[in-house]
Amino acid sequence: MNKKSIIVILVLYFLSAAVSFGAFAVLVDPASTVPLLGNNQQTAETEEEVTALGALLDIDPSEPKDQVCPLNGQLYTMTEKKSWETRRPLAVMIENHPDARPQSGLSDADIVFEALAEGGVTRFMGLFYCDAQRYDITLAPVRSARSYFVDWASGFNFPLYVHVGGANLPGPADALGQIGDYGWGLENDLNQFSIGYPTFVRNSNRLGKDVATEHTMESSTEKLWTFAAENRDWTNIAPARRIGRLSYEATDWKEDFTPWIFQDEVPADGDTTQISYEFWDGYSQYAVSWKYNAEVKMYERTMANEKHIDLNTEKQIKAANVIVLLTAEKGPIDELKHMLYTTTGTGKALVFKNGEAISARWSKKTRQDELTFTDNKGNDLELARGLTWISVVDTATDVEY
User: Fold this and answer.
1) Opening angle at CA 157, ends 156 and 159, nearest 5
2) Contact predicate 63/79, CB 8 Å
3) What domains sit in the chain, N to C, each tagged with a CATH number?
4) What is the β-pairing status of strands 288-293 and 298-303?
5) Could you tell me if 289 and 275 are in contact, meaning their C-beta atoms sit under 8 angstroms apart?
6) What DSSP assignment string belongs to 40-64?
7) Per residue in 205-216, is it b (16+ CB within 10 Å) or e — as a string?
8) Shortest CA distance to 175 belongs to which of 326, 336, 329?
9) Residues whose CB falls within 8 Å of the CB of residue 144, separated by 6 or more in sequence, listed in order
């Protein structure tokens, strides 16, 4: 091919590219190519706030709140209960690197698990079910799976497990391998790698500053529930399926889940008003403290000596129960500094509620069994109604209170 022919081919190529780009710019709304989820959502504390935010449900203001949420114990209307009973909980991995803060959605979770992911960096798994029926909640930044979070999620009867990839080196920390072995893959497992846009969106402007790409993944409660129902046939009913030689019948989520026990009467406040602990000594960016607010009977969370704010609400995160679960921690176990925790068996826990500190025991017989808490006499603990926050730390951790 002579030089003149090459020049002609290159000219035609660039003309074709320019025409294609121009057509794309005209035919496609630029906003749709970089979809942004709004940060103006708030945790509504009154019916008026819910209405102003665009409530998903039409709730009569006079409708009584007498229906107990199985995850957080709070009271809701029958309208809200009918909504959550058509779905199953979302278990969403949310990261905690300083560049990813503040997170979106944690204050609307019913339960939050917190543990190390690798190299001293902690990660969260929020369970969203009852409180998330009122309005669509932005969830961000969604991050990768870890094996022990998968084990804790397993106790909630095949929740919709939401993540962006995960640890997959050969060995005990292979979270993606576990998900496949447990029969979750392309079922109740909502992995961004196999789903993508528009259920998941890269929002580089979420924090109003430049951050690394791994800190930008967003989704929302309604997007995830809609995808699961329309594309996987996963609602409150798990579809019948086969895993290896085993066949599973279609099951209703609530039929195989036993809620924790929640207190009917609120006791007088105790005098334990301050709690603090580190996950690793010297890693102050992940150090946590809680302060009990007797007016609202909630613990207000501080992290790295700053109020831990939910970006959706622009308010400090609060929890009704703070549980420090002590268990054997192992790691880093590989070149990526992955960690391992003992997730089954029994061990010590500290339960903080209503300003009191309780020396307790945690128990989880098998991976599929629910995590439970008892007092030192073996009686099931009654938890306060509201968000339960579970921080998982090594048995040698010093918890000050």
Assistant:
1) 70
2) yes
3) 54-256 (3.50.90.10), 261-394 (3.50.90.10)
4) antiparallel
5) yes
6) ------SHHHHHHT--SS---TTS-
7) ebbeeebeebbb
8) 336
9) 93, 117, 163, 164, 165, 166, 167, 175
- What is the chain's length? 401
What's the CA gap between 71 and 381, in Å, rounded? 14
Chain-centre distance for alpha carbon 332: 23
pLDDT in tens, 248-306: 777 899 888 999 999 999 889 999 999 999 999 999 999 999 999 999 999 999 999 99
Per the prediction, the chain carries an average pLDDT of 88
Residue 24 has pLDDT above 50, yes or no: no
Q: What is the largest CA-CA distance in the chain?
A: 91
HEC profile of 217-266: EEEEHHHHHHHHHHHHCCCCEECCEEECCEEECCEEHHHHCCCCEECCCC
Q: Which amino acid is at 353?
A: K
Beta strands in 241-371 (DSSP E): 241-243, 246-248, 251-252, 261-262, 274-277, 288-293, 298-303, 306-307, 309-310, 315-316, 318-319, 321-327, 329-330, 340-341, 345-353, 356-364
Q: Which residue has the tokens 């409530």?
A: 55
Cα–Cα distance measured from residue 57 to residue 38, given in angstroms and rounded to the nearest whole number: 20
Question: H helices of 158-220, where?
Answer: 175-181, 192-195
Helix and strand totals (H; E) in the chain:
8, 30
Nearest to 323 by CA among 148, 111, 71: 111
Bridge partners, residue 123, by sequence: 95, 115
Q: What is the pLDDT of residues 358-380, one digit of tens each?
A: 999 999 999 999 999 999 899 99
pLDDT of residue 246 exceeding 90: no
Spatial CA neighbour of 136 closest among 241, 40, 11, 62? 40
